[in-house]
Amino acid sequence: MKRNTWQREAVREALDDTEGFISAQALHSTLHASGSPIGLATVYRALGDLASSGEADSLQSPEGEALYRACSTTGHHHHLICRNCGLTVEIAADEVEAWAKGVAAEHGFTQAAHVVDVFGLCANCTKLVVADGADSKVEADRG
Ligand SMILES: [Zn+2]
Ligand SMILES: [Zn+2]
Ligand SMILES: [Zn+2]
Fold first, then answer.
1. Which residue among 32, 39, 62, 103 is the one 20 to 30 A from 109 at the CA level?
2. What is the DSSP code string of 5-41?
3. Which of 56-70, 80-94, 98-112, 124-138 has the lowest mean pLDDT?
4. How many structural domains compose the chain?
């Protein structure tokens, strides 16, 4: 099926040009701004395709929104994601693989798959937060 190939390529290119994770809606706006006539439903479909073929990462934001990102690592892996700036680190997690397989087998499950992404604050954002915290402690000195 060669249907919708240019749309998929357009979506993939836009995703490649994006730093960090982006929602289908935001990517659609970006494409529109650059003059593409692509529809939002097509963007959703193309992102779903890219995610299922492993060319894009997909995850749920803490707010429950589906987010996508061009993936630099092929094959199964996990992510550390900064919830403040969106920095993403691709990680292997051998312990998780062994645990997931083991716990599935224990319950008689086969073909088990899992998605594990860790959200937190990156080193830079942690520094910013610590600086903020120090500020609020100085409050007692004001007034
Ligand atoms: Zn990835
Ligand atoms: Zn950060
Ligand atoms: Zn895994």
1. 62
2. HHHHHHHHHHHHT--S-EEHHHHHHHHHHTT----HH
3. 124-138
4. 2
Task: Tell the residue number behind the tokens 């935001």, with chain if given.
Answer: 26
Residues 63 and 87 grouped into a single domain: no
| CATH number of the structural domain spanning residue 33 | 1.10.10.10
Spell out which residues have Cβ within 5 A of ligand 2, the ion.
82, 84-85, 87, 122, 125
Distance 39 CA to ligand 3 centre (A): 33
Cα–Cα dist 130/72, whole Å? 31
Domain boundary among 73, 93, 112: 73
Q: Quick one: pLDDT at residue 15?
A: 93
Ligand (nearest to CA of 124): 2
Q: Quick one: which of 100, 87, 88 has its CA closest to 128?
A: 87
DSSP letter (8 states) at residue 3: T
Query: How many angstroms does the Cα of residue 96 sit away from the middle of ligand 2?
Result: 24
Residue that is last in its domain, among 28, 43, 73: 73
Cα(131) to ligand 1 centroid in Å equals: 31
